[in-house]
Amino acid sequence: MRMKRSRIKGYYCRKAVTVRDREGGTSLEYQPSVPFSGEVWPAGGKIQAGQYGDRLGYICNVRIQGEYEVTQDERGRLHYVFPETGLDITERDGLCLYVPGDAPPDYRIISIRPYTPLRLEAEKLAAPSGMKTGGGPMG
Questions:
Q1: What is the CB neighbour count within 10 angstroms for residue 98?
Q2: SS3 of 75-123
Q3: Using one digit for the tens of pLDDT, what is the confidence trace for 29-78?
Q4: What is the mean pLDDT of the chain?
Q5: In which element (H, E) is residue 65 found?
Q6: What does the pLDDT look like over 75-88, one tens digit per residue?
Q7: Closest by alpha carbon to 13, among 108, 78, 84?
Q8: Beta strands 26-42 and 9-20: pairing type?
Q9: Whole-angstrom distance between the N-terminal and C-terminal Cα of the chain?
Q10: Quick one: 65 exposed, middle or buried, by C-beta within 10 A (0-12, 13-18, 19+)?
């Protein structure tokens, strides 16, 4: 399917890395961002409503422009690599859709559909502690 040029904008992808601390606990950290061009729109429709239910309002669809190759790592996870830009996408990676590329990601990839162009489903992440999410004082 052709992507309409007026809808294509610049976004950022941040690779997710699991890190172990001294006590053996794990946490998720994100590597520096890699820019990509794509199209974003909110999830909707009967199939996605049935699939995500109440979470539907927090899901976005993303279509990424360009040719990609599918590779597999030693753990069996699929990587979708764009040779022209060096973009490497897997599930759980972070996306900066409505925040700058150097900020923590605001969405996480939950599903990858290997169509042409590549299509992702991303879920909104909770705001990091210390950041305001809007709204005014109560009372």
A1: 12
A2: CCCEEEEECCCCEEECCCCEEECCCCCCCCCCEEEEEEECCCCEEEEEE
A3: 999 999 999 999 999 999 999 999 999 999 999 999 889 999 999 999 99
A4: 88
A5: none
A6: 999 999 999 989 99
A7: 108
A8: antiparallel
A9: 51
A10: middle
